[in-house]
Amino acid sequence: MSYAALVRPAIDRVYIGMRQAARDRLRELVARTGLQPGFNGSFYFGLLARPMPAEAFAAATTYSGSDMTGELEQGIMAVDDAGTWSLTEPGRVLTLELQQVIADAAQERWGQTYGGALPGEAVLPRLAELLAVLLKAGEATGGPAFRAATPVYEPAGASYALQVSTRMGALRHHRGDAHRAAWAAAGLTLEQLRALSPGDPLRASIELDTNRRDEPVYDALTEAERWELLGLLAALPN
Fold first, then answer.
1. Which pLDDT score, from 0 to 100, does residue 148 have?
2. Do the beta carbons of residue 87 and residue 40 sit within 8 Å?
3. Per its UniProt entry, which superkingdom is the organism in (predicted)?
């Protein structure tokens, strides 16, 4: 098994658990502001740093769909004639608060040690450091969505929980780009990909190609650091 295949579920477990932990706080944000985050809620780490060109937007919305009606009607995002998307000023204010809300939820969740059984937030400084190495390495190998996500936006004095939550979100787009490239190289459309059964050999070959394309980002870590990264992720509760 490649390292990319081994670490992917570990990253997804922590990231998805972190986002689930933020749901109540995000509902409170919506109730207080009257604004409903959309695409800015899933790509805040990049949008807070720079506008997103059309190619990157198409890549980042491949699986979720690109209907931005809600964002436009609420005035939180704007698009120019070239198809470049950016946050409006109200959208930026909302998205900055959203980033902090997610980080606060992560801090609370990751601070749980279950009676000392897990080290919890003590691992965050080192995890933030290793994620920074991976994001830097990905500049040479990432596709359009990853390039739009990095370098990530982090406010001055950002907590380690904010750094980790933000950097992890961006890192997942390195694999997303790899997956899109893999099924496109196999000559499939998204509809054809989704029609493949779980046991289809073609689906398995696409997964192998995805791992191959995702693997180079982890070459920036030594073997010891790769095992360390898995251990740090395992130290964080869902």
1. 98
2. yes
3. Bacteria
The DSSP code sequence of 107-150 is HHHHT--TTTTS-GGGGHHHHHHHHHHHHHHHTTT--HHHHHH-
Helix ranges (DSSP H) in the chain? 3-21, 23-33, 39-42, 44-47, 54-60, 69-74, 89-110, 124-138, 144-149, 160-185, 190-195, 201-214, 223-234
Nearest to 22 by CA among 128, 101, 134: 101
Residue-level pLDDT at 113? 77
Which residue ranges make up each domain of the chain? Answer: 3-234
Q: Which residues contact 17 (CB under 8 A, 6 or more apart)?
A: 109, 237, 238
Q: Please, are residues 166 and 173 in contact by the beta-carbon 8 Å criterion? A: no
- What is the Cα–Cα distance from 72 to 132, expressed in whole angstroms? 33
Q: Is the pTM here over 0.85, yes or no?
A: yes
H or E segment at 79? strand 77-79
Residue 85 phi/psi, 5° resolution? Answer: -100, 140
Sign of CA dihedral 190, 196, 198, 203: negative
pLDDT at 119 (0 to 100): 82
Q: Which helix (H) or strand (E) holds 77?
A: strand 77-79
> Which letter does DSSP use for residue 78 in this model?
E
| pLDDT tens digits for range 20-39 | 999 999 999 999 999 999 99
